[in-house]
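HUMAN: Ready with one sample?

ASSISTANT:
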Amino acid sequence: MTESTDLGPEDQKIVTLARSARARNGVPEGAAVRDETGRTYVAGTVALDSLQLSALRTAVAMAVASGASSLEAAAVVSGESALSAEDLAAVRDLGGAGTPVFLAGPDGAVRETATAG
């Protein structure tokens, strides 16, 4: 993983969407993914007694359920200092090993960029 703060406008958009989902829903994480057609899917953490999903895995599931066949990029806004292996695996399953995943803090500043691989 490398630190990155220089994002293009489309990547900055998914970071902003992820940050908004986190704040709006009062959840620990917000996430957004962009599919191969440019559509975005935004989600927050799911924490039910019977179902526990990170925000990123929820966003990937929403993309799959909507017919996306690939991902261009993903973003997570979280207080965590690293992306989980399970989150990276979900992005890799749909987007491939080279899909960039941005991890931003609650302030929206991107702390790290990883690839799903």
Remarks:
- The chain is about 35% helix and 30% strand.
- The first strand starts at residue 29 and ends at 35.
- The radius of gyration is 12 Å.
- The CA atoms of residues 23 and 30 lie 8 Å apart.
